[in-house]
């Protein structure tokens, strides 16, 4: 691994997408959790826990997309045109989520609310699943031509391995949302959510273990890759499991803040594990491995990368300041007011 | 229909629908800054109520703007993959910068605005409003930079990607070398190189100079033109809602305050827009003469070219149905186009002698020859119409924009006159009632004008995606098929219909309810209470 501009940009795009996974992770997961309660008051508390911030969270995805376009235009082009149907479905689900949360409380009728809640939940679930499926395919490999054009169709993407990654992504985000909601609620509801955590955390751990086992037992090229960097991956894997177990411990000790931070770390280690397995590839080509897109043949010129690096160096601290201030301002438990959803 | 046409329809659909919302938030942002400043200065509770109301409206529009904006960020990849590969080195940067510098700022501070009435004090609220408005404008800047680069590309060169093997042989980038090791390099092409259809997938635009690319010849003109259009649209949204209140004699005081601010804003922006429009058109004449000729329906190069007002432009076709020229039946001001293009208003007689190129001479023979090296002179003239934008439509969209701009300017002038003489408040007079009804329709006119302007800009660039560099037909995704695009168009249409229906019902409900007094929140320290509820300001509640 050499520390050139391409590697730095691999890291920067990774940071943006990890930021997206950590932040939008809990609001996608909140969507799934919404279906576990039937009580309108509880649902409102769930939605208002993400109310002031979901909009800002989606900005991470949009910026991640922009950064991918700027730094690795070939990857941006191959992936999004190749995954056309899946991606349109994801965009559709993301728009629907926004519609659902914005409009559900503008009308007091229970039927109206239930409809939008289900719309919100289903589209959140589909978004989380599709994001995972996309990651699974990038890792396992998709058929690419010599000009890096995708050769498969929508069904090629829905292979068992990628669906398993999708399921892992759903369970991870659901767990993450569970911890976030514990942090934002109090009293009976908080107790209830703590009980849920005893299910959602092991569910994720189960998916994670299964995914690792399947990765080791699956395609040859993945085995070789994992074997090459086995120590790094093993350390990351152990770290990921350790922080996830720590969530349960913190919940038992009644430290919701630490539990949530452990959950964030769980996502961060998971994303790092993914990145460490991928590097320096960005899109694996399978079966023709030599057509893979990596951080060099998919990238913009050095001049462009350098310019954008300066832009990011000045901009990212600002982004962090905004994000942290907003979360600081809206710290504490959810209270429903007139402005609430 | 082929993939290119469908993808263009989809882009036009998603971009047009998206662009219903940002102009309103950009304009409303400026209006809110004024309102919040007045709130801090005067400390009147009515301003708090008004600011709260307009912030809610802003929030609703912004949410739909974000939702419809997500597809815009990714469509260059889904539908225009060849374009994305070709221009990624330059075009991706403004999009990324928009995300980092504009979106985070806008969405973050908007959360404070919307949900912070009981959490932050008035000065912080004013600051947040300024940041939201600034964020909205930043976003406009970077999108206009990106789009203007497509109109008047600058600061780049073209380069051919090749694979070089260990023995130094160069292969085209698409060659499958099997397991043989190679390195990827780029060979710069000469400055005047014109992309051939065969270059697709091997040649891309490479950045030379970011300042030149960002401040390309059309960026500033088009930026001011668009931002002023946004201010006008936002102002007329406020005007229409306030006029409705006034006409129904509801929330009269709130309506009067809103109208005072918004009508002044509309008048200033409309006047400035005349200057900006003039400057923009002069830029088009200089850098995209083909577009100007098509907009005015000008077939032959001439001096004393007239400025069209209304009329009908149609294609002239030969017996085989091929386009050979234009037939224009238009009414216009003689020689005014020549004068405007020269920009020399002090010497109209000499300015009228300025030559304006007609479509029969455009694009230049030099460009055509470079793209079709084998063609004869006669064949080039036959090929020329394939490089013309759709003049019959452009003439209409362009002149519709101008006409509506004039109508809006007239409404703003009349409205301000009504303000100054106080006649606007005499709502019992039939004249005033008709005028208020006209004001209620004004945002639709503003939206149609804005959309017509964008259609003129984008259709006028055709058949190019990047003007005189990359054709739109060469920009589509290689692997996407027509039925896929058709499906996504249907999906987008459905969800946009749903969004519109909901948006209209929700906005109507909000407007009917009008500004509401703020409820006291006991749990807050006194200095965080809204001003109207603070001790020490007797008589304000």
Description:
The complex is a heterodimer of chains A (341) and B (541). Helices cover 77% and strands 1% of the residues of chain A. Chain A has 341 residues and is mainly α. Chain A has one domain. In chain A, strands 1-2 form a two-stranded antiparallel sheet. The model of chain A has no long low-confidence stretch (mean pLDDT 87). Chain B folds into four domains: 1-154 and 481-541, no CATH class; 157-207, no CATH class; 219-287 and 392-460; 299-387, no CATH class. In chain B, α1 packs parallel to α16 (482-513), α4 packs antiparallel against α5 and α8 crosses α9. In chain B, a hairpin with a 4-residue loop joins β1 (156-165) and β2 (170-172). Chain B is globular, with a radius of gyration of 27 Å. In chain B, strands 1, 2, 3 and 4 form a four-stranded antiparallel beta sheet that branches. Chain B has a two-stranded antiparallel sheet with strand order 5-6. Chain B has helices at 3-18, 22-42, 45-78, 81-115, 122-151, 210-214, 219-247, 252-287, 289-296, 336-342, 348-351, 365-371, 377-383, 391-421, 430-459, 482-513; strands spanning 156-165, 170-172, 182-188, 203-207, 307-317, 323-333, 464-466, 470-471. Chain B contains 16 helices and eight strands. The interface between A and B is large, with 71 and 80 residues.
């Amino acid at each position: 691994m050499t520390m050139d501009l391409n590697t730095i940009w691999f890291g920067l795009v990774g940071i943006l997408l990890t930021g997206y996974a950590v932040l939008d992770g809990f609001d996608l997961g909140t969507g799934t959790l919404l279906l576990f309660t039937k009580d309108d008051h509880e649902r409102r508390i769930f939605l208002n826990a993400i109310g002031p911030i979901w909009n800002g969270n989606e900005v991470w995805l949009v910026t991640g997309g922009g950064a991918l376009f700027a730094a690795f235009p070939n990857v941006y082009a191959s992936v999004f045109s190749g995954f056309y149907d899946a991606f349109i479905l994801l965009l559709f689900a993301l728009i629907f989520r926004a519609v659902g949360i914005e409009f559900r409380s503008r009308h007091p009728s229970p039927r109206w609310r239930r409809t939008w809640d289900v719309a919100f939940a289903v589209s959140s679930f589909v978004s989380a699943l599709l994001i995972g499926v996309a990651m699974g395919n990038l890792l396992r490999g998709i058929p690419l031509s010599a000009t890096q054009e995708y050769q498969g169709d929508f069904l090629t993407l829905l292979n068992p391995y990628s669906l398993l990654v999708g399921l892992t992504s759903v369970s991870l985000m659901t767990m993450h949302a569970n911890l976030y909601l514990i942090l934002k609620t109090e009293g009976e509801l908080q107790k209830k959510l703590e009980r849920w955590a005893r299910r959602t955390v092991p569910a994720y751990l189960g998916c994670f273990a299964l995914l690792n086992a399947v990765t080791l037992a699956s395609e040859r090229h993945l085995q070789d890759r994992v074997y090459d960097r086995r120590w790094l991956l093993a350390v990351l894997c152990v770290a990921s499991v350790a922080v996830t177990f720590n969530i349960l411990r913190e919940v038992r000790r009644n430290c919701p803040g630490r539990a949530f931070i452990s959950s964030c770390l769980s996502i961060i280690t998971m994303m790092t594990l993914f990145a460490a397995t991928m590097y320096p590839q960005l899109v694996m080509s399978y079966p023709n491995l030599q057509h893979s897109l990596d951080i060099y043949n998919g990238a913009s010129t050095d001049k462009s990368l350098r310019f954008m690096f300066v832009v990011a160096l000045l901009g990212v601290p600002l982004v962090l300041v905004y994000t942290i201030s907003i979360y600081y301002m809206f710290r504490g438990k959810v209270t429903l007011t007139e402005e609430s959803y | 229909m082929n993939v290119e046409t469908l993808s263009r329809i989809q882009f036009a659909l998603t971009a047009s629908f998206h662009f219903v919302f940002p102009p309103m938030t950009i304009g409303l942002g400026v209006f809110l800054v004024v309102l919040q400043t007045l709130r801090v200065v005067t400390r009147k509770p009515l301003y708090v109520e008004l600011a709260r109301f307009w912030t809610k409206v802003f929030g609703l529009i912004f949410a739909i703007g974000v939702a419809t904006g997500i597809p815009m960020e990714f469509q260059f990849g889904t539908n225009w993959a060849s374009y994305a590969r070709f221009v990624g080195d330059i075009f991706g940067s403004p999009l990324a910068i928009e995300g980092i510098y504009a979106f985070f700022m806008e969405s973050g501070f908007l959360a404070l605005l919307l949900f912070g009435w009981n959490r932050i004090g008035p000065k912080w609220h004013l600051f947040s409003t300024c940041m939201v408005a600034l964020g909205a404008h930043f976003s406009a800047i970077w999108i206009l930079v990106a789009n203007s680069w497509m109109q008047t590309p600058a600061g780049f060169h073209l380069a051919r990607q090749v694979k070089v093997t260990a023995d130094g042989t160069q292969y085209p980038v698409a060659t499958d070398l099997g397991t043989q090791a190679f390195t990827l390099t780029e060979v710069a092409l000469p400055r005047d190189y014109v992309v051939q259809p065969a270059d697709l997938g091997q040649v891309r635009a490479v950045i030379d100079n970011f300042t030149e690319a960002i401040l390309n010849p059309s960026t500033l003109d088009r930026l001011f033109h668009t931002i002023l259009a946004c201010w006008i649209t936002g102002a007329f949204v406020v005007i229409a809602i306030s006029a409705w209140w006034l006409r129904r004699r509801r929330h009269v005081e709130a309506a009067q305050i809103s109208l005072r601010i918004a009508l002044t804003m509309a008048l200033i922006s409309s006047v400035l827009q005349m200057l900006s429009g003039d400057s923009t058109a002069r830029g088009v004449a200089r850098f995209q003469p083909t577009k100007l000729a098509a907009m005015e329906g000008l077939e032959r190069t001439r001096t004393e070219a007239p400025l069209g007002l209304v009329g009908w432009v149609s294609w002239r076709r030969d017996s085989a149905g091929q386009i050979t020229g234009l037939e224009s039946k238009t009414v216009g001001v003689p020689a005014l186009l020549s004068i405007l293009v020269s920009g020399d208003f002090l010497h109209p007689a000499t300015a009228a002698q300025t030559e304006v190129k007609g479509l029969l001479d455009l694009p230049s023979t030099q460009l055509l020859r470079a793209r079709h090296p084998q063609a004869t002179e006669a064949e080039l003239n036959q090929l020329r119409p394939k490089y013309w934008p759709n003049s019959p439509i452009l003439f209409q969209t362009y002149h519709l924009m101008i006409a509506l701009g004039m109508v809006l300017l007239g409404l703003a002038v009349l409205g301000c006159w009504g303000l100054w003489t106080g006649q606007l408040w005499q709502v019992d007079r039939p004249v005033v009632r008709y005028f208020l009804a006209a004001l209620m329709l004004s945002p639709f006119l503003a939206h149609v004008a804005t959309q017509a302007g964008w259609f003129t800009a984008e259709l006028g660039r055709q058949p190019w995606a990047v003007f005189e560099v990359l054709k739109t037909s060469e920009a589509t995704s290689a692997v996407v098929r027509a039925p896929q695009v058709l499906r996504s168009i249907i999906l987008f249409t459905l969800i946009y219909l749903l969004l519109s229906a909901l948006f209209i019902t929700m906005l109507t409900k909000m407007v009917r309810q009008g500004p509401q007094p703020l409820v006291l929140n006991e749990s807050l320290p006194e200095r965080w209470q809204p001003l109207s509820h603070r001790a020490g300001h007797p008589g304000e509640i």
